[in-house]
Write a sequence for this structure.
């Protein structure tokens, strides 16, 4: 028995040892396999877990003035970054609590472009950086879709199994409609839930928002494969050192050094510099294709920053780094160097720019402070200073803005952002109306309304007419428009975008046209009769001296007419031009032919582009001409007809009344049958309006019955297109009188289009003449240089940022060349010289004692209808154009002051002084400049020399 038992025990041991041997063999084989056979693969995996490639941002190129002074540059700034790893995620809240405490103590703001803000009343609201409602709506939809709110709505409306890609247009439209109904408070609380912020310790709303910002940035960055974000980008050295010392206890937190855009002169030159900001959602694909990181990169939005984005942006670098388990960089293993962007050298002279802006600010302030004048709204203006060969030396627009607001966190506060991008026009409008007593003035209100309505009703009516609700937004009851441009807009460039009548600054064109066409000579004299007795007895034109004093300028020639700015003389020149070929309609374009040569518009069908050539955004106005006037007056009379139809009257007989009729297209929002209905009605209204335009522009006049019959059929089509319109109950008489009102509109418009009175208005710079201050400056430069119209250029060259070598040259080229008789140019210049130096010159007081002979012209521009200026608290704009030196002009200046009583050349003199500084000091070392931004040492040196 015992032997058998021993054998059995021995067998068990053998099995055990064999099993152990097999196990150890397998383990050994596996170790050999892992450490020898698979060594390369697992080494790569290990490397990928500990190493990563990161992008190195490039410094943006400098923007400098003609002498190398810096307008915009990039400075190295300490940034506080957060990388999400398992460890940093686990310690997120405790880490952020400490981070917030340090940032608050050091008064360093976070990077914050989150669209939900806390307003001054402590409430949550949306704040999208857009100045137009269409873009703002788009941004709001994108914000909510990116955060999954559309999917939440889709599941609620169409079930949990819904697929977003399978929704039809009607369903998507409904989702967008519901998305726009989500309030900022609701969106914030949903994100609070999505990001798990409710798990955090008890904290303030501001702290909660900061946590959501970080979580939200991480989520948005993750779409592009990035797991690192910047919390703050303006750390000082001391704070950066504090965070570096605490890195071990703050998982995920790291300090880096990155270039940040900086504008040393703050708001100086903002009109042409523009600003940089985050990439707009609708442009993401475009920029992604160009290698941008749409979540972190910033691009030029306006001005030179936008126009020269490709030159300024630089080339990113790349680093291969080793990171630890907290996601913190521990070593740089390799690097591809980043290259700074190119340098953009401007034609701008910083000293002239400073003088132009200071003179503009001071002049506007003086105008606002005048007693007894209705100029308290004089907050806007512009100045253009340029060489006669096209180089822009200064360009200013007021109000301006500090471009640093978009790069330095904390400067663009929610309050400032709200004021700039989405002002509360309901509140501001009421305050404006009541503070100026506009509810007690006739103009916007009729006399009957003033007498029959209560004060509160009048305020409400004025508000709705000056700041109407935006009817482009379906169901809108809150968002208003600034119909009369009452409040200044910092991001609107008044120098390059504001289209205004040039007023009397246009009169040199009229005189030149008369001289060139031979209807007057420099010696021709015309007697100023005050009220102009034209071939149109109903024309109300008169000279300003007659309107103001019932006076006359007597017998005057061309030079004198320019010196005293005589309207009567200009009317007569226009009349002579009209009569030159027997009053043929084409002669209405005589003034336009010369204005076009000077850059005030371009002929239809011309190969010349409608632009001054400037690199930044501009509008380009058109001079009055017969063909363009057809469009302008057609639209004007149809707009007038809209008002008549709404009131149930016509332009000829106030006793005629009919049921109001609407021909304005309605916004095409909604879905299904409702949307189809709107589109049908709009198509019928369009057919009716198109017929009106066709009849107005028809060369041969149709019979009254024929026109009324045509309009009657189209009116009935509109009525039948919508049951709601049918329900109004239009009778045959109503329809006839509506058609009759349309017939009168056609006749009135045709009469106006073919009237020589248009040429009279154009001759004094009013009527249908609309140009930008930049265009006016360019026209004067072309006039005084003899007819060479140069491109207008802000930029001189693009330089290599390291070597300074010229990469691109932007010397202005000649756009067109006009052959004018030099004696006629001299005659016009003589009149403009007398404006500044003549006994009756409108600016002789300002230029008295100025050692450089110059020429100029003042002008008054009725930006809005003169009949309602007072009623809306606005005033005419004052313009001035000037050139110097008189004999051989080098530079020109154009200034415009909105809602003022005019600029009499003060700004021009100040800029002339700076441009001719050295020459003036040579003539008079003790000359007292209006503005002197130069150092005392420099001034003393100049005086010594």
């Amino acid at each position: 028995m015992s032997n058998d038992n021993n054998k059995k025990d021995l067998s068990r041991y053998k099995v055990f040892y064999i099993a152990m041997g097999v196990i150890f063999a397998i383990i050994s084989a596996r170790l050999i396999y892992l450490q020898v056979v698979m060594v390369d693969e697992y080494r790569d995996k290990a490397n990928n877990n500990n190493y990563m490639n990161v992008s190195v941002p490039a410094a943006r190129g400098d923007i400098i003035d003609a002498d190398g002074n810096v307008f915009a540059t990039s400075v190295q700034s300490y940034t506080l970054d957060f990388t999400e790893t398992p460890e940093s995620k686990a310690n997120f809240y405790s880490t952020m609590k400490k981070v917030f405490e340090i940032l608050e103590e050091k008064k360093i703001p976070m990077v914050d472009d989150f669209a939900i803000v806390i307003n001054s009343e402590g409430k949550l609201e949306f704040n999208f950086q857009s100045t137009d409602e269409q873009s703002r709506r788009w941004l709001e939809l994108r914000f909510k879709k990116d955060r999954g709110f559309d999917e939440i709505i889709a599941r609620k409306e169409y079930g949990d199994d819904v697929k977003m890609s399978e929704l039809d247009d009607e369903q998507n439209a409904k989702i967008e409609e519901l998305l726009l109904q989500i309030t900022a408070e609701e969106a914030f609380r949903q994100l609070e839930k999505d990001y798990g912020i409710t798990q955090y310790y008890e904290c303030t709303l501001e702290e909660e928002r900061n946590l959501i910002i970080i979580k939200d940035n991480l989520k948005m960055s993750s779409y592009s494969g990035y797991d690192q974000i910047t919390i703050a980008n303006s750390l000082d050295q001391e704070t950066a050192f504090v965070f570096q010392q605490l890195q071990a206890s703050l998982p995920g937190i790291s300090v880096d050094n990155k270039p940040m855009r900086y504008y040393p002169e703050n708001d100086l030159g903002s009109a042409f510099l523009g600003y940089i900001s985050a990439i707009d959602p609708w442009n993401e694909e475009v920029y992604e294709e160009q290698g941008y990181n749409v979540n972190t990169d910033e691009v030029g939005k306006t001005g030179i920053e936008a126009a020269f984005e490709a030159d300024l942006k630089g080339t990113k670098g790349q680093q291969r780094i080793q990171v630890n388990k907290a996601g913190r960089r521990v070593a740089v293993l390799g690097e591809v160097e980043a290259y700074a962007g190119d340098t953009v050298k401007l034609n701008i002279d910083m000293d002239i720019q400073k003088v132009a802006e200071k003179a503009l600010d001071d002049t506007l302030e003086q105008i606002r402070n005048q007693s007894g004048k209705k100029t308290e709204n004089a907050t806007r203006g512009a100045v253009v200073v340029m060489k006669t060969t096209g180089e822009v030396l200064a360009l200013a627009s007021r109000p301006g803005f500090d471009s640093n607001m978009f790069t330095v966190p904390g400067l663009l506060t929610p309050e400032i952002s709200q004021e700039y991008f989405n002002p509360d026009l309901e509140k501001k409008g009421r305050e404006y109306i009541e503070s100026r007593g506009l509810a007690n003035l006739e103009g916007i209100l009729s006399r009957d309304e003033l007498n029959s309505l209560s004060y509160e009703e009048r305020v409400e009516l004025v508000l709705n007419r000056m700041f109407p609700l935006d009817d482009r937004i379906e169901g809108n009851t809150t968002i208003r428009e600034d119909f009369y441009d009452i409040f200044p807009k910092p991001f609107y460039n008044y120098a390059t975008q504001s289209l205004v009548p040039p007023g009397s600054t246009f009169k040199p064109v009229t005189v030149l046209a008369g001289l060139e066409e031979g209807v007057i000579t420099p010696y021709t004299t015309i007697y100023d009769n005050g009220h102009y007795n034209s071939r149109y007895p109903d024309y109300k034109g008169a000279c300003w001296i007659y309107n103001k004093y019932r006076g006359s300028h007597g017998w005057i020639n061309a030079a004198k007419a320019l010196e005293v700015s005589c309207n009567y003389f200009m009317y007569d020149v226009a009349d002579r031009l009209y009569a030159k070929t027997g009053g043929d309609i084409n002669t209405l374009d005589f003034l336009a032919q010369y204005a076009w040569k000077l850059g005030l518009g371009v002929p239809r069908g011309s190969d010349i582009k409608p632009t001054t050539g400037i690199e930044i955004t501009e509008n380009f106005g058109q001079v009055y001409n017969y063909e363009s006037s057809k469009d302008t007056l057609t639209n004007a009379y149809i707009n007038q007809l809209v008002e008549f139809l709404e009131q149930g009257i016509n332009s000829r007989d106030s006793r005629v009344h009919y049921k109001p009729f609407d021909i304005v297209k309605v916004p095409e929002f909604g879905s299904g049958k409702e949307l189809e209905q709107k589109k049908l009605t709009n198509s019928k209204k369009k057919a009716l309006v198109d017929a009106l335009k066709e009849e107005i522009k028809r060369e041969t006049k149709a019979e009254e019955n024929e026109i009324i019959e045509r309009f009657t059929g189209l009116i009935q089509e509109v009525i039948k297109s919508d049951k709601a319109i049918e329900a109004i109950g239009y009778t045959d008489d109503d329809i006839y009188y509506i058609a009759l009102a349309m017939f009168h509109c056609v006749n009135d418009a045709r009469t106006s289009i073919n009237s020589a009175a248009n040429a009279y208005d154009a001759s004094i710079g009013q009527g249908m003449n609309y140009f930008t201050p930049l265009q006016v400056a360019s026209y004067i430069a072309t006039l005084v240089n003899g007819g060479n119209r140069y491109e207008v250029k802000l930029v001189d060259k693009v330089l290599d940022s390291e070597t300074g070598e010229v990469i691109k040259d932007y010397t202005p080229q000649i756009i067109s060349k006009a052959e004018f008789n030099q004696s006629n140019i001299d005659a016009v210049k003589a009149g403009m010289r007398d404006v500044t130096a003549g006994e009756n010159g409108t600016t002789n007081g300002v230029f008295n004692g100025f050692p450089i002979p110059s020429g100029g012209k003042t002008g008054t521009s009725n930006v809005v209808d003169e009949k309602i200026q007072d009623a809306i608290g606005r005033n005419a704009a004052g313009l001035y154009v000037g050139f110097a030196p008189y004999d051989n002009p080098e530079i020109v200046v154009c200034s415009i002051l909105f809602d003022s009583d005019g600029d009499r050349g003060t700004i021009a003199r100040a800029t002339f002084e700076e441009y001719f500084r050295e020459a003036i000091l040579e003539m008079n070392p003790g000359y007292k400049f209006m503005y002197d931004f130069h150092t005392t040492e420099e001034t003393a040196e100049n005086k010594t020399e």
